[in-house]
Target: Fungal-type protein kinase domain-containing protein
Amino acid sequence: MSSHATPRTAKSPNDVNNAEQAKRPYQLEHWRRELTSKINVYDGELDDFLDIFVPSNTPCPLDLPNEQIAEDFHPVKGREVHHYDPLINIFSRIVADFPEDRRLSFCNTHAQELFFPFSSFAKDHHTSKPDISVSFPGVQLASRVKSPDWTRFSMVIEAKSTASEDAFDAKAGITRTDAIVQLAISARSLMFAHGMLAAYTLGIYGDMVRIARFDHACAVASEAFSIKSVEGLRIIQEFFWRFTHPWHPTPGAVVGHDETVSKITPAQQTWLREHLGSEADELLNGVDLREGRVVKVWDDREPKDPSSGTETEGSSSSSSSSSILETEDTGFDSEPKEYILFKLVNVNARLFSRSTMVWLGIEYDTAKSAEDLELRIIKEAWRQLVRIPESTFYRRLRKTIPLEQRIGLPGLVGGGDLGAREVAEWEAASKPPCRVLRPRANRDTPRPPPHPMHQTFTWRLTVGSDAKARERSHMRLVVDTVGRPLSRFRSTKELVTAIRDAIKGHRLALERGGILHRDISSGNILIVDKPRRNQSRGILHDLDYSSMTLEVPTSPTVADDSSNPPKLYHLRLEQDKPLEHASGHKERTGTYYFFAIDLLDPTMQTPLHQARHDLESFYWVLLWIVLRHTVYTHVAGQNACETAFVYGDDLKAVSTKRSWLVGPLPTIPGNEPLTELIYELTGQIYQATLNERWGTRTPLTYDALLATFNRALARDDWPVADGAIPFYHGDARTNSVYADRRPRGPRGSKRARDVEALQSAFTDIQSGEFGSAVPSGEPSNKRNRSNAASDPRQKSAAGSTAGSSTLVASSSRRGGGSTSVRAKSSGSRRGKGSYSSRKRSA
Model:
């Protein structure tokens, strides 16, 4: 089975091999390119911008601000730190007449570090220092907050001395992008800290102001306006009013908050400890429950086939362990379940991405006993609309693979697409009779906001409906199998076993379910602590980037027949409309470090993504973990990981991997099974890739790969308790993104320090596990690599290929990429410069 390729557009890396690599100009340029392609400036009226992007149905009844409150504000180049307190005074006077429970307060935080919102991942990210931080409604901040953290703030304000430093001015070039990076860092942190659907920032450039809104698809900024004019002050007042009066106001809420998320209360913390029982101390060790949250989970249902009156494949009527319920043909459950998410397992902190968060949690049901509740994995992600919802793949697996045969694969307990659910309700609300809402509709049903929030609409609202393919939808899924990341293996044999079982799961998904994973990475394989199904010690999860056959395979050979591959599940948008040129809108599939060589090679036509490419990725995953989390010897010493993995430059990445396959390999002292396994696997990858050019290619197959793993695991000389060692590179991620280690210049020269510090901080808008130095030893390689007889690359790879999945690639040219756009306005146009156009109501 093969799948269409996706554009070769590199994101900034999640994982960096050393501190120096993080500063390389080409990586910063990749980040800049990614960021600027998702920044829009709305060219409509400011009131239209507020109506569309800061929705509120509570009109502002206040008198217009007095322009005298800003008359003494005179920004001076090079003295921006002196501007913060005057700006705080202006903003405080603007909101002075707000109701007390909706009033904002402001504090100067330019010299105070704010760490990444989750303490267990804080070491992987730089701290930041927003110029001005804003409270939640009704909270009074001190003028200087001691030990500030993101949980206290709802918004940030960045101020620059001159209009030429405008972050959204297309003429400003590099300065523009670096300034946006500062705003994006804060927006990212706000969204992750509070589970927000969108975050807002203010940018002050001289005496000009822009309002910016960030979500997980893109950012949109208003036109610039003057803070020293009555009209400008009115816009700021209107913005603050709307921000503190969301469409469905609840205490302390702001526009962009997620109504399905709440903080863990003291009573819920007590309940959690009681229901975790004897495992509470271990599970909650080092956990700050203030970082956790309570979420609502609705279960999607499979739609019915209109021609047959029966549910389509994967419906909850199928035999499964899922708890997905059925309601009156609504497509969704009417009542949600609540889950307490108490420990963050993994996070992809990229801003414009899936922004995946993986939590350990438990259903919060006071009517159930502790014995009736199990730990679950809860995953939140923002899928591209051009991609099939992950829940669809899980339902296919549930239908095609009985529970007792499901090795290496998790099961879906519940959840689904919150964005699709909200869009269905939003569309149905204006269409009587309201079929979707009928089971719960009544006169008190609140009017929906102008646009959904769990599915982004920013591209459509700024560019037009043709940009729908760039939008994202909020997924929340509950999975039954709890596990640990590969980087936390307790023994190397456990590590190898987990990867072997994940390969088995990959094979099952393809041969039985017609599903090709396409994103094999170190983060997508978990080690299972308490295996229940056939003693599976590893699972392959995260099916976001998978592809699927239209029909369920009738036999393994159907999925493996590359000469006549099965039809793939067509890419579709909502309303089941096929999307033309869909691959051009999709992000590149997979995790860059683990791409197969054929998929990276820019000198060749990009082949269709096939099973053999995923099998090769399993090798790179094992190598990555070994080079980062074990003690080994290698001629490159502690830099061995760099000799195999390069990020961002396809030609260099291909050259590096090919060189690794023919160069010295590592030796793991005292661990002959793992050392031999790496040698044998390297030989198989060599035979399947490099030898192809001379016509002696040995296909990489499931049977051959699993046979190699099984031979290694059958050995009785594996070391015991040789668990993973921590992996840190030279930059320990403990210094501020704006910290200046040199002697400080005159007070007020913060701009120069910002730009320099950002050169080493650009990746921290995104999340990732950053590298470390492997404990160094005397570089040596005990194996004579020149001995052809002992080199597995000089002989056929071990293992039988009979009955395995051997696929031949076909090629296709890919294109794509996006550029910065200037948005078209929509809605009514009011008199520009007029502040009397807004209707006031008492």
